[in-house]
Write a structure and sequence with these properties.
Blueprint lengths: L1 H13 L1 E3 L4 E7 L22 H13 L5 E9 L5 H52 L5 H43 L2 E7 L9
Helix pairs in contact: 3-4
């Protein structure tokens, strides 16, 4: 219990915790709406890519704050920049970006699963073939070398499948969970006077 309280205290020093809503508020300061998006992307606003550094920051927030906690992204802009239409389109674009990240992670996981099945199938074939070669009496030297190579190759294939599932795919699944949380979290825009960067809650 003490450890949990200490962890919450450390997090609250970085991200504001709203007791009433029971969530962490992640505040991001902007000068204008365009800072949200990649400056090289000329597509319409709701389909534009997020600024890579911003996306990296949001992803890091996902790792900082435990998955069981709720989060809310709050973008802080000057009052003079308020534009309801841009705000709505920006929200839609942010959610679209989260959805696209999840889509590409899913594609990567499907590709990895196919590789895993292929590695296991090849590994089994290598081991079965090597077993039958070894079971033969008076095995010639070249076939004996081939048998050893097949055994090694079979276990290498199994290791590749194991590594892909437990390390590479595990990281992708963990990343997907974090973006799924953001995709279902609230996003708002708060406006402030030029002298007051963050509004008082």
């Amino acid at each position: 219990m003490k450890r949990k309280i200490k962890k919450q205290l450390r997090l609250s020093q970085i991200y504001q915790y709203l007791e009433n809503d029971e969530l962490y508020l992640v505040q991001i300061s902007l000068d204008n709406y365009d800072e949200l998006f990649n400056g090289w992307d000329a597509t319409p606003l709701k389909r534009r890519d997020l600024e890579p550094e911003l996306l990296d920051f949001i992803e890091q927030v996902g790792y900082d704050i435990p998955l069981k906690e709720k989060v809310k992204l709050s973008f802080q802009l000057p009052n003079a920049k308020f534009d309801k239409q841009k705000e709505e389109r920006s929200k839609e674009a942010i959610y679209n970006n989260f959805t696209m990240v999840i889509h590409y992670i899913n594609k990567s996981l499907v590709k990895n699963n196919r590789k895993i099945i292929s590695y296991i199938a090849i590994g089994l074939l290598f081991l079965i073939f090597a077993y039958f070669l070894r079971s033969s009496s008076m095995l010639p030297v070249p076939l004996s070398i081939l048998s050893e190579g097949l055994f090694i190759g079979g276990w290498v294939m199994f290791w590749e499948a194991f590594s892909l599932f437990f390390f590479v795919s595990y990281d992708s699944r963990a990343r997907r969970k974090r973006f799924l949380r953001f995709a279902t979290s609230d996003i708002d825009f708060d406006y402030h006077d030029e002298q007051n960067q963050y509004p008082v809650e």
